[in-house]
Specification:
single chain, 191 residues, PH-domain like, five-stranded mixed beta sheet, four-stranded antiparallel beta sheet, 3 helices, 11 strands, 28% strand, elongated
């Protein structure tokens, strides 16, 4: 009787006119295919895994996993595929199951890879500073509109401020740079 787990599979399209990227977890490696290109990445050769929250214009609930090998280019998996100009297909369950299985295999293999969350600190902290500066400017504009008793400006700026704080706050809260263990991937970065 075979004690190896069955292969786990995941597929998505990174762009509307790109080929479908297909991934399969073999007992000792990630095997992938994109159009005519294909490859194999042994688990022992994975040096870094990064999970992040990356919404797009028409899709506010999108997650990305990046896997860097010791040599070669990174593999990128997203939790959705474009269907049309403004329509996306979510692969939340398949994406979460595939990454859960990958993390279990990496933990069982006692991988020496670095497991990271969110954005790199060089992108995150300047982004937080810009977010805070824009938030303060919007708050100042609301105070100015209140001082001039311009109700329509107060309503418009207040709505814009609320949406900006909500969207930006969720983005920066989920993408806070940190490390994690492959035995317990962060739930806030999986659908």
């Amino acid at each position: 009787m075979n004690s190896e787990p069955p292969p786990s599979r995941f597929a998505y399209k990174p762009a509307r006119f790109s080929p479908v990227w297909q991934f399969e977890l073999a007992p000792d490696a990630i095997e992938w295919e994109a159009g005519t290109r294909r490859g194999r990445l042994p688990y022992a050769d994975i040096r870094r895994v990064r999970l992040s929250f990356r919404p797009r214009s028409m899709q506010t609930h999108r997650f990305v996993a990046e896997i860097w090998p010791a040599r070669g280019g990174r593999l990128r998996l997203a939790s959705s595929s474009p269907r049309g100009i403004a329509e996306y297909e979510a692969h939340d369950a398949a994406y979460a199951a595939f990454l859960g299985d990958l993390h279990q295999r990496l933990a069982a293999a006692q991988s020496a890879a670095s497991f990271e969350c969110g954005l790199s600190p060089l992108r995150y902290w300047p982004g937080v500073a810009i977010f805070a500066a824009v938030s303060l400017m919007l708050a100042a504009l609301i105070v100015r509109a209140l001082a001039t008793a311009n109700r329509s400006a107060v309503l418009l700026l207040g709505a814009l401020f609320a949406i900006f704080l909500w969207q930006g706050g969720v983005f920066f809260q989920r993408n806070r740079p940190r490390r994690y263990s492959p035995a317990s991937p962060p739930r806030d970065l999986l659908p």
